[in-house]
Design goal:
By secondary structure, the protein is an alpha/beta fold. The chain has 2 domains: 123 residues, Rossmann fold; 194 residues, NAD(P)-binding Rossmann-like Domain (Rossmann fold), CATH 3.40.50. The protein contains 12 helices and 14 strands. The strands form 3 sheets. It has a 7-stranded parallel β-sheet with strand order 8-7-6-9-10-11-14. The chain has a 5-stranded parallel β-sheet with strand order 2-1-3-4-5, with helices on one face. It has a two-stranded antiparallel ribbon with strand order 12-13. The longest helix has 16 residues. The protein is elongated.
Amino acid sequence: MAEKPNLLVTSSPVGSRLEELSPYAKVYWLNDLDEKELDHLLPSIDCMLVQAWWPDSLNPERISRMVRLRFIQSGMAGVNHIPFKHLGRRVMVSSNAGGFSTGVAEFALALLLAAAKRVVKLDLALRTEEFDPSQWPNLFREVMILRGRTLGILGYGGIGRSVGSMGLALGMNVMAFSRHPSPGGGVQVSHGEEGLLRVLGKSDAVVIALPLSKLTVGLIGATELGAMKRDAILVNVARAEIVDEEALFEHLSKNGQFTYATDVWQIKRGRETYASKFPLVKLPNFIGTPHVAGGSAASTGEPGKIAAENLLRYLGGEPPQNVVDPSEYI
């Protein structure tokens, strides 16, 4: 009888059904291991489930000792936290694409509606007692009616398609940009630099749902922001680094009708900062939340369930889904 492979789990995913993996693998919890136990175990680890950020304890030197490691399942939709340059091409990595689709898409819609309906501005006016009834006609003219408007989606994977279906339900015209061929499902999908600018230029609101890779870092810069409508809304539920912060700050400062709403922030030393080196939060046309979209989706247990199911595919000898191309990250 073949020996069970050793699976190292960095943290316990909610609703992951990891108990179903025990017939197929010996499961070890990183947080239960002391330094000596971890060092002894590393050379025998065959696969991993990395639920959140890459753990600090697994530094490059320790990674080099994981000679049997062949597969990593990310618990997150993105995989930019995985240290590809230290793993080399011998390790296959799967994202958790699809696990967060509904929850993150709903949050993207919430940010879009908050921006379009000027919810934050109007709420603040009442809270600070700065609301002037004589200005009521001017205020309601700022509110954007979304029906009949165009929604652009950057990244047409699971989250992007969920956002698209919600936009269609609101009566919006939906178009999308994708780096790879994607099933449109009745939605016009564009590719390449020209396709990106086309989507940005025609959209009244744009939702970023792209993965962060070396191909998408700084993808939205001054040129791309300048291609958008002056009163457009840009929503980011992907990764902060996809948008050039300096170009964004200048664009927001010069274009008061343009709105940026984000749930994601710059990552420094492997952790999210929830801050910007530019005073974005002081601008009236900026809306920010502290990256709760993914957490709210994870609380349903669906992402953990999907990650465990993909691990079962690998452990059962089936090809895992959502395998990423390491060349996009190295």
